[in-house]
Every structure is written in structure tokens, then in C-alpha cells.
Hints:
65% of the residues lie in helices and 0% in strands. It is an all-alpha fold. The protein has one domain.
Amino acid sequence: MLNLRCVLSISLLAVSIQTSAFDLGGLKEQLGNLGKAPAQDAATKPAEQPKPSSTDLSIFSNKDQIGSLKQALTQGAETAVKDLAKENGYLGNDKVRIPLPDSLKKVDGLMRKVGLGKYSDDLVTSMNRAAEAAVPEAKTLLVGAVKKMTVEDAKAILTGGDDAATQYFRKNTETALAGKFKPIVAKSMLKVKLAEKYDQFAGKGAKFGLVEERDARLDDYITRKALDGLFVMMAEQEKAIRANPLEATGSLAKKVFSALLGK
Length: 263
């Protein structure tokens, strides 16, 4: 199994001293050379190993190094949840705001023409408020996924795309998150009579192919969109961490990053 010290050392060496940003380009090629001893002339003696300097990650334990990565990812996940859980976290953010289902958009257009757009607006507000109420449930599951992360998981994140960590979270938590979100969403929507009417309309429409089966219940639709929004925000946090690790991570990660950067 690849030593995480090697993984983190390579990823952190890609941080420019001038820009303090991750540059993961070429990591796979460098990872392929890990563990290969440098060529030596048989007649020469191995060069004396230099003593660790203030910018040498060998001064940190493996535990500290993997801890720094986990701390960065934990902070990103917690920030995404916190931002979405506040009032208008979903409703006030165009990137994650939950719109009416496609099956209601034509009806919405007709209602607005006759001055009944308020009903649609109220439904949209209620859907987004339900998502804001449910998203705090994500924190425990996301942090748990970080704790279970293996060295191989860390390697895949470091050598993957800009959203590799987000995809890891989605793969390992999405099903469980849906199970946590849906009861809270359903409870929130009980107060909205229009949601009940929608369920009746959509349920009948789905039988005749007029409404997509997965949109036949509003709580299912909101749960799915709430999760999509969560992972959108987590991807943004991941991008920020990769762009500026010294500002985007916690104390342990800052300690490791700063040592490598000589700060």
C-alpha cells in the first residue's frame, strides 16, 4: 500500500511557494516512480541522507499527515452544510435553489397569467425551506465518511479531478443521506396544502406517463434536489481548498502545509 507520506509529500510539493496553490498536474507520473530506488554506480557509496529541514515533511508523523488531509475535507464538508442550513441557504442561492418540478412549470405559467403566481412562489419557498431544515443531518454522515477514508481513498482524491473528494463523499453517503433527509422534508411539507394537491395530481399523472415517476411525490423530488445542492456546494469548497490550502484548512493542515512552504 502506498505510504500516505509519499502521497501528501507529492501533492504538497505541487504547491507553488509563490502562489500557495495545489497543482495536481503530473502527480500520476510522479506516483509511478514512488518506491523506485535511484540508480547508483556500483563503485560508489550511497550518498549520505540529508538531515530533515524545516520544510521536510518527514518531521511529521504519518498520523499527522493523513490527519491534515482529513481535517481539510472535514472543514469543507462542514462549511457546505452550514451555509445551506441557514435561512435562504437554498432559496437565496441560484446555484442550488430548488425550482418547481418540470411537470408543474406549464401550470405555473398559466397561474401567473391569471394573477395566481403567489401559489407557485409559496410552494417554491416551502420546498427550499424543507431542504434547509433537512441538510444539517448531513454533517454526521459526511464526517463519518472522512474518518473511514483509507490511504487508497486519499491517493484517489489527490490524483483525481477537481471534485474527486466530492465524488468520494457522494459515493459513500448519498443513499444514507437520502434516508435522513426525506422524513424531515416530508414533515415540513405536511403544512403545505398545495404540496398535497401536487402529490394527488402527480400520482395520477405518473400512471398515464404525464409525469416522471421519480417526480410523482414532492418529498422525493425535494430530497433529490437538496442532495444535488449539497454536493454542488461541497465541490465549491473542495475547489477552494485546492486553490488555497493555507487559508481553507484547519490548524493541523496549516502546520503541515506551512512547513513545506517554509513559512
